[in-house]
């Protein structure tokens, strides 16, 4: 069976980035929690600012979803990569 390379851990966000993320995420939640429109939620300026910060906020976002457990992070990595599919042997 082929092996799947393990992706390196994402960079740890600085305190400044985490404070900025928490502030923006708080704004987004307060201002969109009563909406059911995903378009309205995704178009919110605070969410756009979070996305603009970049990949360094991904651990914070996953942490908020309950992905602090390293085992769950590993499962998420395998679920979001094509390497396993590309490198796997056909099932028999």
Structure characterization notes:
The structure is a single chain. The longest helix has 18 residues, at 15-32. Mean pLDDT is 75; it is low at 79-88. The protein has 92 residues and is mainly alpha-helical. The protein is globular, with a radius of gyration of 17 Å. The chain is 59% helix and 0% strand. The chain has one domain. Helix 1 runs antiparallel to helix 3.
Task: Summarize the biggest pleated sheet.
Answer: none
- Strand tally is 0
Provide the number of structural domains.
1
Helix-and-strand structural type: mainly alpha
- Beta-strand content: under 5%
The radius of gyration is 17 Å
Q: Give the N-to-C terminal Cα separation.
A: 12 Å
Q: Count of helices?
A: 6
In short:
The protein is mostly helical.
Topology:
Blueprint: H1 15-32, H2 38-42, H3 45-53, H4 58-64, H5 70-79, H6 83-87
Helix pairs in contact: 1-3
């Amino acid at each position: 069976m082929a092996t799947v390379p393990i992706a390196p851990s994402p960079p740890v966000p600085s305190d400044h980035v985490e404070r900025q993320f928490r502030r923006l995420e708080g704004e987004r939640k307060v201002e969109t929690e009563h909406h059911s429109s995903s378009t309205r939620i995704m178009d919110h300026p605070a969410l756009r600012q979070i996305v603009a910060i970049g990949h360094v906020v991904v651990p914070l976002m996953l942490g908020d979803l309950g992905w602090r457990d390293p085992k769950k992070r590993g499962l998420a990595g395998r679920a979001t990569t094509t390497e396993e599919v590309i490198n796997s042997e056909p099932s028999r």
